[in-house]
């Protein structure tokens, strides 16, 4: 699996006129991450393997592995170790895969998540990740202090903490190169402690045979308090934080010569070596000590070693190296977030010294750690630190799982992993969170979500592309495929999607707000530009301005220009072309025709709309009154005498009623249903019909009005309204349209159903 990662990339000099260099590309993609002259670049062993393996081989190995084997037994302990490392391995494989697909900059896991799911998600994970990384330094300092006081019990605890912090900060502040050189020395100390254990095994410490050891433990806690013994999952929760050190090397991503190669090789190698060491130590402990010895003393490993002092030195070295790696990594995470404007004072925090060290970010990190040392007890937030690590693992696996599932051509990593690996990493991290502490897990998720909400409102401008657009496209495609398999008639899902023909930018000057009120909320506007005289170039720019204006008002709008020779031909071509679109227009919006020729065009357009099962809305504004105060709307219903029965099929009324309802809601206006019957004996039936229609249609603030005069007479004596809505015939008489505008002394709309909407649905 790793062979494909071992070939490095060669580079050659290029002239000024040639393509940009890798450093130039990185500078464009990741501001502040490009190599700096004089900046030390690290390889796989020093930059990734060393800090990762030293973080995993930490205080839990020295002080808690014996307690774990004593409670769970050899097989139970090996199962706990295997499950913990399996979750970590899946996460490491997912991280390794995605790092071979992107130009990863500084920030490690933050950079991976930000480039996949966007700066908002990356920052929402990166900020708590940074805080937990910094506070982990404090926890490691406290662990180092315990070991130090074991040797020198007379030393003052607070002074030991401050002295340890001063040494750590001094090393980290000088340079990452100095920190890694110190870690080489610590690795030698830890190696000596393991040699001490191996020497003990070789000289007879493993006094119990396989038949004498406890294979599955009693989970008794300790011999002093057997009634309070932990469960299997409690023991697992104690062990699992040992495996959360795999990001120590990835945090150095901005300082690596070849992060695409070093992060996978170094991280996976560190996991493999650490797993073998934990397994061998489990076997040695089970055969060298009784369960009671292991559960009663955290120092059983020291007691059974050939040179106990070497193990104590290894414990001190492990806590010191873990603190050092966390401090160096935390500063780099903060600097990377500053470079992307994710955190306050971003420009100051993104500063890199001439040698490439994030001095300002290290100052803030040092101050945070120093302040946390004064708290003296971080036990309450220790689980939260682990949770933020696990949230990071979860998001990395989720990012890879999304990219794998989308099958985008841009996802072509050098290291390919099966989809189930990233899924197991995601599921395992979530399960581990809630096994350790359901309450703290929820707190961690809420905090992460809170940071996301804050960052989303800031509308961060990322210097790189992420996978979110591909994700939304995939969801839209899935929705489109699902909708095509549903029954054709979906009246309950109806919403106004207007098709608006435009020949000039000024065509919408008087109807822009009306279109807004017809579609808000959830509706859409599709503008079809009909190029006059075959000159679509200028119209394209005008339509872009119009669609942008609609979007500023949260209305989904798009546009296209059709050059098909004329108004009718172009609009008919547009309706036909959009027949198979997912967001298909369902209403043609027409303005009052200004000439007999355009009236003839409209008749052909209305006939085509009928064939395409699209509604038609003819907007006839009053030349003086316009839409008045927008307080009342009359929806006119034709005389249905003598049959006033109501059913789901109510004739050419559905779109008129839905249009009136939409406008009444957006205007906060009253809607009236109006009809007139020439025969007085039909008035009660008509009134009952309108009231039932209001009830079944659930139209609030609506009233029914019934007249007893001929329509032409009643039209002038009916209650006045700012807008009157009438039905539209297949062959409209435009003289009648003009007359009704004059008789009502108001703006009118003439509406024709498509047959695909229902006011009673």
Structure notes:
This protein has 761 residues and is α/β, with parallel strands linked by helices. The protein folds into 2 domains: 421 residues, Amino acid/polyamine transporter I, CATH 1.20.1740; 145 residues, HUPs (Rossmann fold). It is built from 28 helices and 10 strands. The chain has a 10-stranded mixed sheet with strand order 3-2-1-4-5-10-9-6-7-8, sandwiched between helices. α21 links the parallel β1 and β2. It is elongated.
Strand content: 5-15%
- Name the helicity range: 55-70%
Give the oligomer, counting copies of the same chain as homo and different chains as hetero: single chain
Low-confidence stretches: 1-38
Structure classification: alpha/beta
- Distance linking N and C termini: 58 Å
């Amino acid at each position: 699996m790793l062979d494909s990662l071992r070939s490095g990339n060669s580079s050659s000099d290029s002239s000024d006129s040639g393509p940009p260099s890798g450093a130039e590309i990185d500078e464009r993609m990741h501001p502040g991450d490009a190599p700096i002259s004089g900046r030390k670049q690290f390889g796989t062993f020093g930059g990734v393997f060393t800090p990762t393996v030293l973080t995993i081989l930490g205080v839990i190995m020295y002080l808690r592995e014996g307690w774990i084997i004593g409670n769970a037994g050899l097989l139970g302990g090996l199962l706990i170790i295997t499950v913990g490392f399996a979750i970590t391995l899946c996460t490491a494989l997912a991280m390794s895969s995605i790092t071979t697909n992107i130009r990863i900059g500084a920030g490690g896991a933050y950079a991976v998540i930000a480039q996949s799911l966007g700066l908002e998600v990356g920052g929402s994970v990166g900020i708590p990740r940074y805080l937990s990384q910094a506070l982990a330094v404090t926890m490691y300092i406290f662990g180092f202090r315990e070991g130090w006081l074991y040797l020198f019990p007379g030393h003052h605890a607070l002074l030991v903490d401050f002295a340890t912090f001063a040494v750590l900060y001094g090393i980290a502040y000088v340079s990452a190169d100095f920190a890694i050189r110190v870690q080489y020395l610590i690795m030698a100390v830890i190696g000596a402690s393991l040699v001490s254990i191996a020497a003990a095994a070789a000289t007879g410490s493993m006094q119990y045979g396989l038949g004498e050891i406890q294979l599955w433990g009693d989970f008794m806690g300790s011999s002093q308090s057997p009634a309070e013994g932990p469960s299997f999952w409690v023991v697992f929760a104690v062990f699992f934080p040992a495996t959360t050190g795999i990001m120590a090397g990835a945090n150095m991503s901005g300082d690596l010569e070849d992060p695409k190669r070093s992060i996978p090789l170094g991280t996976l190698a560190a996991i493999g070596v650490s797993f073998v060491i934990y397994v061998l130590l489990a076997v040695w402990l089970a055969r060298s000590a009784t369960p009671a010895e292991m559960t009663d003393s955290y120092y059983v490993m020291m007691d059974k070693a050939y040179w106990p002092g070497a193990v104590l030195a290894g414990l001190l070295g492990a806590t010191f190296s873990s603190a050092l790696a966390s401090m160096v990594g935390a500063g780099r995470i903060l600097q990377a977030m500053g470079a992307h404007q994710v955190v306050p004072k971003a420009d100051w925090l993104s500063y890199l010294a001439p040698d490439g060290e994030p001095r300002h970010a290290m100052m803030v990190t040092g101050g945070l750690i120093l302040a946390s040392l004064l708290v003296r007890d971080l036990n309450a937030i220790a689980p939260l630190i682990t949770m933020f690590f696990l949230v990071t693992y979860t998001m990395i696996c989720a990012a890879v799982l999304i990219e794998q599932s989308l099958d985008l051509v841009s996802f072509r990593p050098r290291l390919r992993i099966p989809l189930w690996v990233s899924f197991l990493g995601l599921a395992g991290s979530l399960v581990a969170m809630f096994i350790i502490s359901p309450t703290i897990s929820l707190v961690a998720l809420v905090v992460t979500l809170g940071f996301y909400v804050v960052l989303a409102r800031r509308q961060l401008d990322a210097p790189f592309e992420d996978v979110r657009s591909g994700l939304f496209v995939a969801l839209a495609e899935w929705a489109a495929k699902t909708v095509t398999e549903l029954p054709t008639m979906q009246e309950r899902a109806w919403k106004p999607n207007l098709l608006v023909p435009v020949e000039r930018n000024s065509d919408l000057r008087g109807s822009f707000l009306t279109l807004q009120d017809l579609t808000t909320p959830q509706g859409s506007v599709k503008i079809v530009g009909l190029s006059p005289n075959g000159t679509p170039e200028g119209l394209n720019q005008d339509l872009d301005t119009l669609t942008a204006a609609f979007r500023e008002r949260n209305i989904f709008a798009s546009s296209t220009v059709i050059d098909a020779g004329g108004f009718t031909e172009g609009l008919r071509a547009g309706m036909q072309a959009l027949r198979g679109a997912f967001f298909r227009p369902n209403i043609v919006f027409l303005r009052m025709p200004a000439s007999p020729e355009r009236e003839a065009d409209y008749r052909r357009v209305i006939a085509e709309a009928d064939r395409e099962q699209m509604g038609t809305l003819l907007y006839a504004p009053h030349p003086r009154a316009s839409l008045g105060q927008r307080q009342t709307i009359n929806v006119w219903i034709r005389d249905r005498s003598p049959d006033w029965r109501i059913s789901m099929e109510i004739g050419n009324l559905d779109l008129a009623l839905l249009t009136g309802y939409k406008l009444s809601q957006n205007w906060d206006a009253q809607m009236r249903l109006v009809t007139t019957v020439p025969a007085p004996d039909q008035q009660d039936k008509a009134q009952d019909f309108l009231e039932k229609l209001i009830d079944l249609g659930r139209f609030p603030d609506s009233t029914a009005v019934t007249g007893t005069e001929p329509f032409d007479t009643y039209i002038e004596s009916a209650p006045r309204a700012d807008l009157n809505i009438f039905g539209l015939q297949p062959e409209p008489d435009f003289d009648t349209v003009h007359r009704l505008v004059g008789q009502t002394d108001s703006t009118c709309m003439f509406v024709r159903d498509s047959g695909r909407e229902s006011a009673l649905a």
